[in-house]
Design brief:
The chain has 467 residues and is an alpha/beta fold. 39% of the residues lie in helices and 23% in strands. The chain has two domains: 132 residues, Urease, subunit C, domain 1 (Roll), CATH 2.30.40.10; 290 residues, Alpha-Beta Barrel (TIM Barrel). Strands 1, 2, 3, 4, 5, 14, 15, 16 and 17 form a nine-stranded mixed beta sheet that branches. Strands 6-7-8-9-10-11-12-13 form an eight-stranded parallel beta sheet.
């Protein structure tokens, strides 16, 4: 008798093993799809196909008929009426800010930050706040088919603990800033804590990658950014930060340093590191060329940038120059959700209207930014973002069998312009099933709702007092 693949089999959520005639290799899981979108340029799309998983890794991808002859698995997930594809990569967010969702809207970036976000963070952000907000964010991302995210928020050990429990994959940035922030008096203690976090978590967990997260060029001095460069170089660590986000930042850097934000941080050594640069809106041709040459990953946050009036990132120009551009939701306080499918569609549409060219940003390009290119932008392109042999088994199934999805002519176009997060049926990370038939299996939803209700009641009371 075959061993159980996972505890969730006890819930009866997976199908029994396949019957295979003749010799066959053993696997943990086979996942099927009427349509298999690999995002591998060498073999982008298959019909009636499957992915085979063993020990968290994809060991085979191919037509159903061949897979069924070659493999026997502990469990399988059927794919009738479904698209099977890589999980989405959210390249920039602040997970715990889900608890500030809708707290205040329709303001410019600096007013939003200085008059509302920073003061409310100082009042409410505690380890418990971060734990609850991160769990809410992870539940939302699992439901929407995001399998990897890049985070930047306070109390990163709490974030890491939630990620470890819920099963997602994450780059967790430990923020450091020149000013007092939750848990810290200023730069010295926040930077020391970031260095400690990165050192403790490096190599500690296969789904968690620690990173340095200096907030931005307008909140971290040149001297302190150089300290980040030195420590990140010493530890061979990733760095994630906000960069070239809004006109106010560009004006500040020009006044203080006489250059652009991109050239400023590049001169300090950040462009010599594996850097994930969020937003990248205020760029000129020289900035783009330097970013491409350095191999810096750029994360496009279309909804947040539009909502805060920050501008439109020159994504087509970056892609043409060879920059790896991914997509991000930003935090739920400035979006106001973590639905990466909205970002995919928004990116495809925004650059058409911005350029006046309906051929700009075709559907396949937008989808690549959420998968293969997004993985490359966060410097994980060798392990995630595609469904091919040797990659991590991070994948999702979407339902295209409903009447509202008829007819289906082009899978990639359909995914971008028709489907949304409610169509995600299955979410798998490292071969582990986190959601099946739209039921999140790794987070207790009722307990989570109770915690969120308690936390939001305190914030709601403070907002009333502020008015």
């Amino acid at each position: 008798m075959l061993k159980l693949f996972a505890p969730w089999l006890l819930l009866g959520v997976l199908c029994p093993p396949l019957a295979v005639a003749g010799p066959a290799s053993g696997a943990d899981l086979i996942v099927y799809g009427d349509y298999l979108l690999t995002m591998d340029p060498a073999q982008p799309e298959l019909k009636d196909a499957a992915v085979v998983v063993r020990d968290s890794v994809i060991v085979d991808v191919g037509p159903r008929e061949r897979i069924d002859r070659a493999w026997v698995a502990e469990a399988s997930i059927p794919g009738v009426g479904r698209v099977l594809m890589p999980g989405l990569v959210n390249g920039h967010t602040h997970t715990a800010m889900t608890l500030f969702r809708g707290m205040v809207d329709d303001l410019d970036l600096m007013t939003w930050l200085n008059h509302y976000v920073f003061p409310m963070e100082g009042r409410f952000v505690t380890p418990g706040f971060v734990r609850t907000g991160t769990e809410l964010a992870c539940w939302e991302m699992i439901r929407g088919g995001t399998t990897t995210f890049v985070d930047m928020y306070f109390y990163p050990d709490e974030i890491a603990a939630v990620v470890e429990r819920c099963g997602l994959r994450a780059v967790i940035g430990s923020p450091h800033i020149d000013y007092p922030s939750p848990g810290f008096n200023g730069w010295d203690d926040s930077f020391a804590a970031a260095a400690d976090f990165v050192a403790r978590w490096q190599g500690r967990h296969p789904r968690i990658t620690p990173a340095f997260a200096p907030h931005a060029p307008y909140t971290v001095s040149a001297e302190h950014l150089q300290a980040t460069v030195e420590k990140a170089t010493q530890l061979n660590a990733l760095v994630t930060m906000h960069l070239a986000e809004a006109p106010a930042e560009t004006e500040f850097v020009a006044a203080q340093y006489g250059t652009s934000p991109v050239h400023h941080v590049a001169a300090l050594g950040l462009y010599q590191l594996p850097l994930i640069a969020a937003h990248m809106v205020q760029l000129d041709t020289a900035d783009i060329a330097l970013t491409a040459e350095a191999g810096v990953g750029a994360i496009h946050n279309p909804t947040s940038n539009m909502k805060l009036g920050a501008g439109i990132s020159p994504v087509p120009a970056m892609l043409a120059a060879g920059v790896n551009v991914g997509l991000g939701t930003d935090g739920a306080a400035s979006n106001n959700d973590l639905d990466l499918w909205e970002e995919v569609r928004m990116a495809a549409l925004l650059h058409k209207v911005a350029s006046g060219d309906p051929t700009a940003m075709p559907a396949g390009q937008a989808l690549a930014m959420a998968t293969r290119l997004g993985a490359a932008a966060i410097h994980m392109g060798a392990t995630i973002g595609q469904l091919k042999t040797g990659m991590q088994a991070d994948m999702i199934q979407l339902d295209v069998g409903q009447t509202r999805h008829m007819p289906l002519y082009d899978v990639q176009s359909h995914l971008v312009y028709v489907l949304d997060s409610q169509d995600v049926q299955t979410t798998i990370v490292a071969g582990q099933v986190l959601m099946r038939d739209r039921q999140v299996l790794s987070i207790d939803e009722s307990a989570l709702r109770a915690e969120v209700t308690r936390a939001s009641a305190r914030i709601r009371k403070a907002l009333r007092e502020k008015q």
